[in-house]
């Protein structure tokens, strides 16, 4: 009885804390978990969009480029087909840092890179200018003899010293890539050679190309 009389009444500020609300604690915990998951997902998505937004070596891309419009080479005979298979097996994936592009040609022996596109065709016809007085001087690039044919916005180079003619068309805005494709062309044996200043074959075992 005495203890009851001596006990001071509890003031409102000293009231006992309310018991925790389980539902409220559970909602807060779920919110924290959701936040911790959302942050890394946002970072991953941002990285994916950044990495996938450019497929041209750091330049801004607005989407995939359309297929390159290019004529297919003549339908190959067995020997030409076998030769072009060897050449295409050695072609680089990239050319002068340019990514490959699709073409609309109905042929396995056509390739293209970059924009504006550098194009490559194996098994083409003999270039009309080759062996004529109007022809530009033949050039030797890493052991491959090419016939240049400068045109309005491109230069057409045709390898003329192999068992099949191989054509590389280079827009004037692009770097000439003949060094990069020389190993692929050299998969075929040389059948003719260039001439020196005196008009003699640079390889005495072979005839001069176009002679």
Note down, in words, how this protein is organized.
- The chain is of the alpha+beta class and 211 residues long.
- Among the domains are: 19-52; 78-185, Protein Transport Mog1p, Chain A, CATH 3.40.1000.
- The chain is 27% helix and 17% strand.
- It is built from 4 helices and 7 strands.
- The protein has helices spanning 2-6, 22-52, 78-90, 178-185, and strands at 100-101, 110-113, 118-124, 139-141, 144-150, 154-159, 165-171.
- The protein has a 7-stranded antiparallel beta sheet, covered by helices on one side.
- Strand 5 and strand 6 form a beta hairpin.
- Helix 3 packs across helix 4 (178-185).
- The protein is globular.
- Residues 1-18 and 29-61 have low confidence and may be disordered.
Percent of residues in β-strands = 15-25%
Task: Using the 3D structure, state the CATH architecture of the domain at 78-185.
Answer: 3-Layer(aba) Sandwich
Mean pLDDT: 79
Largest sheet: 7 strands, antiparallel
- The helicity comes to 25-40%
N- to C-terminal distance: 133 Å
CATH-derived topology of the domain at 78-185: Protein Transport Mog1p, Chain A
CATH class descriptor of the domain at 78-185: Alpha Beta
Order of helices and strands: HHHEEEEEEEH
According to DSSP, the number of beta strands is 7
Number of DSSP helical runs: 4
Structural class: alpha+beta
Which descriptor suits the 3D outline? globular
Radius of gyration: 36 Å
Low-confidence parts: 1-18, 29-61
Strand order of the largest sheet: 1-2-3-7-6-5-4
